[in-house]
Design brief:
This protein is of the alpha+beta class. About 25% of the residues lie in helices and about 25% in strands. It has helices spanning about 70-80, 140-145, 145-150, 150-175, 215-225, 260-275, 290-300, 325-330, 350-360, 390-400, 415-430, 510-515, 520-535, 550-560, 590-595, and strands at about 35-45, 50-55, 60-65, 85-95, 110-120, 180, 195-200, 205-210, 230-235, 250-255, 290, 310-315, 335-340, 370-375, 375-380, 405-410, 440-445, 450-455, 460, 490-495, 495-505, 545-550. It has an eight-stranded mixed β-sheet with strand order 6-9-10-22-21-20-17-11, with helices on both faces. It starts with about 35 loop residues before the first strand and ends in a 10-residue tail after the last helix. The protein binds aspartic acid (ASP). Aspartic acid binds near residues 500, 501 and 546. Aspartic acid binds near residues 213, 215, 502, 545 and 546.
C-alpha cells in the first residue's frame, strides 16, 4: 500500500500537529508513536465498559481502544458511534497482548490506544453491512451503491481499472498515439444496434445521437494525418434486455494509418503484455492467429475457449458410403458429419448422453451420436447401423482412445459447428480437459464481409460497413457476396471476445459498392455518409484499427463475475440506474421547449 505524500504513514509525538495516518499501514514499527486515524466504524464491540472500534479507511482497518476510566472525554465523544459512522481517533500505537493478536488482520499485532476522539459524521442504521453486503439483494445494493462501493472487493476492482487506464495511456503515448476526444453529440448513423437520441432545443425537430462508437470520427482523423489515434471512448447502445450488458460502456478506441492486420495485432499484444501483469497475468508475446473458417471448423466458434484443448474433426467423407439414415440424410442435404473426441468420456451415463443431446439441440441439431472405445474395441451408439470396419475407421479418424467417447453431429454445417462448439467446451470441461487457470489469447481474422439476414431478406455487415473486403475477393462482391472475406479481426481471451476491429475501406468507390450491397441506395448513402465520401476523396491513407472492451477486460483481470463489479455506477439489465432512478420523466415545460409530446403507451 503506498502512502500519500501529504499524509504521514506514521507520526512522532514531537509533532505539534499530528497528521492523518492510513489505518491499514500501521505496524509494530510505529509502536510508541502518536497517530491519528480518520475513517468509518467497521465493527464495534463493548467489553466491560471498554469500547473497541475497528476503524476503516481506504487502506484497511485498525483497531482503536477507548478506556473510559483513563480517557472519559474520548469515551463520551465516541460512545454514540455505531456502524459506518465517521470518526477520528488519536492516540498511541501499542502492541496488543500476545493472546489478542489477530493474525487474520494486516494490523492485527497492534492497536491504537485512544486519547482523544470525535465523531465526524453520523450514519443511519445501515440497510446492509459493508462486510456482509454480498448477502443483500443486488437491487438493494445498487440502490445504495454509495454503500456497496465501500466493500474492499469493489474498491480493489475500481483501483485495478484505474491502473489499467493510466498504464494503457502511458503505453499508447510511448507508441506515438494522440489521445483525442470525439464528440458525444453526433449524428445518428446506426451500426446495427439502436441509437440513444438527444433532442435539439436550438434546432427544432432535430436530434443528436450518442455515439455507438467513434468509428467515422477516427477514420476521418486518419484522413487528417494524425496517423495514430487513441481514446477511452464511452459508447452507447440502446439494445434490448440482455443479462450482463450495459447501455453505456467504455472502449479503448484505436485507429492507425499505413498499417495491416499484423501491425494492429502487435500493438495490442504489446499493450496486453503491459497491462495484464497488473493482475498477475502474463500473456504470451504473440497469440495464435486463426481464420474465421478454421475457427469454425476446428472449434465450432468464432471465439473459441482454447483452455479446452479438444478439436472437432470432419468425418463426412468416410461416411458417404454408409447406409445409416441419420448420416445419409444429412450428407444428401449438403450437410456434414463432425465429431469431437472427449478422452475419458466413455463412462458417460445414459442421462449424461441425454444432456449432451440437449446441448446439441439448443443449436438446432437433432441430437448426438457417439463412438467410444472400451477394452480396446470401438462401438457405435446404434448397433448394427455400421459395419465393425466402418466403426473402426470412424474411431481412428476421430482419434478415439481407450476410455474415450467421440460425440457426433450430422447436420447442416453451421448447425454442426455450433453444436459441437458447445459440446467441446461443456463436455470437455466436465471431463477435466479445461485448464481453468490458464489465459488463452487468440486472434480470429478474415470474418465473412457480410452475413445473410433471413428475417429481413438482406445482407448485413458482419463487422460494420466500413470494413475492407480482401481485394482478391472484390470481384465477387456483387455476384457472390457471402463468399467475400473481410479484413476484420477479433481478439479473444478464454472464449470472450475482448476486442474487434478491421482494416478499413479507404477507397470511396469501394465504400459505395459495399453500402449498396447492404441495401443502402446511393441517395440515402449520400445523405448519411456524404461527409465520409468527401473525406475519402481528399487523399485518404490506408488505415485500420480496433476497439477493446474495457469493462470486460477489467472484469476478466479482476476475476469478477459481472460487468457491474467493475463499473462504479452500473445500470440494471433493463438499463435503469437504481440509485438516481434514471431514466425519469421530465417536466411538461422541458418537453414543450423541445417541441416534444409523449403519447400514451400503445396510443397514437
Ligand atoms: N467501431 C468498432 C466497434 O465499436 C470497432 C472498430 O472497428 O474499431 O465495434
Amino acid at each position: 500500500m503506498t502512502g500519500d505524500r501529504d499524509e504521514g504513514r506514521h507520526t512522532d509525538r514531537t509533532d505539534t500537529h499530528v497528521k492523518r495516518t492510513q489505518a491499514g499501514t500501521l505496524t509494530t514499527e510505529q509502536v510508541g508513536r502518536q497517530t491519528k486515524v480518520q475513517g468509518w466504524v467497521h465493527r464495534r464491540r463493548d467489553h466491560g465498559g471498554v469500547i473497541f472500534l475497528d476503524v476503516r479507511d481506504r487502506s484497511g482497518v485498525v483497531q482503536a481502544v477507548v478506556h473510559p476510566e483513563t480517557t472519559p472525554d474520548a469515551a463520551a465523544a465516541l460512545q454514540p458511534a455505531r456502524l459506518e459512522w465517521v470518526v477520528e481517533v488519536e492516540g498511541e500505537v501499542v502492541r496488543r497482548d500476545p493472546d489478542k493478536v489477530n493474525p487474520k488482520m494486516a494490523t492485527g499485532e497492534i492497536e491504537v490506544r485512544v486519547e482523544t476522539g470525535r465523531v465526524l459524521g453520523r450514519s443511519e442504521p445501515m440497510p446492509f453491512g459493508v462486510e456482509g453486503a454480498q448477502d443483500a439483494s443486488e437491487e438493494t445494493r445498487l440502490k445504495y451503491r454509495f454503500l456497496d462501493l465501500r466493500r474492499a472487493g469493489l474498491q480493489r476492482n475500481l483501483r485495478m481499472r484505474s491502473d489499467f487506464t493510466i498504464e494503457s495511456l502511458a503505453y499508447f503515448r510511448e507508441q506515438g498515439f494522440v489521445n483525442i476526444e470525439t464528440p458525444m453529440l453526433t449524428r445518428s448513423t446506426p451500426e446495427g444496434a439502436r441509437d440513444y437520441l438527444v433532442p435539439s432545443r436550438l434546432n427544432h425537430g432535430s436530434f443528436y445521437a450518442l455515439p455507438q462508437s467513434p468509428q467515422l470520427f477516427k477514420q476521418i482523423l486518419m484522413v487528417s494525418g494524425l496517423e495514430r489515434y487513441v481514446q477511452f471512448a464511452r459508447c452507447f447502445r440502446d439494445e434490448d434486455l440482455r443479462a450482463d450488458r450495459q447501455p453505456e460502456f467504455t472502449q479503448i478506441d484505436v485507429e492507425m494509418s499505413f498499417v495491416d492486420e499484423e501491425d494492429v495485432f502487435a500493438l495490442v499484444e504489446g499493450l496486453f503484455s503491459r497491462v495484464f501483469p497488473l493482475a498477475g497475468i502474463e500473456p504470451p508475446v504473440s497469440y495464435p492467429r486463426l481464420s474465421y473458417d478454421d475457427a469454425m471448423r476446428r472449434y465450432g466458434s468464432d471465439r473459441p475457449d482454447l483452455r479446452v484443448d479438444l478439436e472437432i474433426t470432419d468425418v463426412t467423407d468416410c461416411l458417404r458410403d454408409t447406409e445409416f439414415r441419420a448420416f445419409q440424410a444429412a450428407i444428401a442435404a449438403g450437410g456434414v458429419v463432425r465429431g469431437v473426441h472427449v478422452p475419458g468420456a466413455s463412462s458417460s451415463s445414459r442421462r449424461q448422453v441425454d444432456e449432451y443431446a440437449d446441448i446439441a439441440r439448443r443449436h438446432g441439431a437433432a441430437g448426438v451420436l457417439w463412438v467410444k472405445r472400451e477394452n480396446g474395441v470401438p462401438s457405435f451408439l446404434v448397433k448394427s447401423a455400421l459395419s465393425q470396419g466402418q466403426v473402426e475407421t470412424l474411431a481412428d479418424r476421430l482419434g478415439v482412445e481407450e476410455g474415450g467417447m467421440a460425440l457426433l453431429v450430422a447436420a447442416p454445417e453451421p448447425t454442426a459447428a455450433a453444436a459441437l462448439g458447445s459440446l467441446r467446451e461443456e463436455v470437455g470441461r466436465r471431463f477435466g480437459h479445461m485448464r481453468e487457470n490458464a489465459h488463452e489469447f487468440l486472434w480470429v481474422h478474415d470474418f465473412p464481409l457480410v452475413t445473410w439476414n433471413g428475417d429481413e431478406g438482406r445482407w448485413n455487415a458482419t463487422h460494420h460497413p466500413f470494413t475492407s473486403p480482401h481485394m482478391s475477393d472484390l470481384d465477387r462482391l456483387e455476384s457472390d457476396p457471402g463468399s467475400v472475406r473481410s479484413r476484420a479481426y477479433d481478439v479473444v481471451l478464454n472464449g470472450n471476445e475482448i476486442g474487434g476491429g478491421s482494416i478499413r475501406i479507404h477507397d470511396r468507390d469501394v465504400q459505395k459498392r459495399v453500402l449498396a450491397l447492404l441495401g443502402i441506395d446511393a441517395e440515402e448513402a449520400e445523405r448519411r455518409f456524404g461527409f465520409l465520401f468527401e473525406a475519402l476523396s481528399y487523399g485518404a491513407p490506408p488505415h485500420g484499427g480496433i476497439a477493446l472492451g474495457v469493462d470486460r477486460i477489467v472484469m476478466l483481470m479482476a476475476g469478477a463475475d459481472s460487468l457491474r463489479d467493475v463499473i462504479a455506477f452500473p445500470k440494471t439489465a433493463s438499463a435503469v440506474c437504481l440509485m438516481t432512478e434514471a431514466p425519469s420523466t421530465v417536466d411538461q415545460e422541458q418537453l414543450l421547449d423541445l417541441g416534444l409530446r409523449i403519447r400514451p403507451q400503445g396510443g397514437r
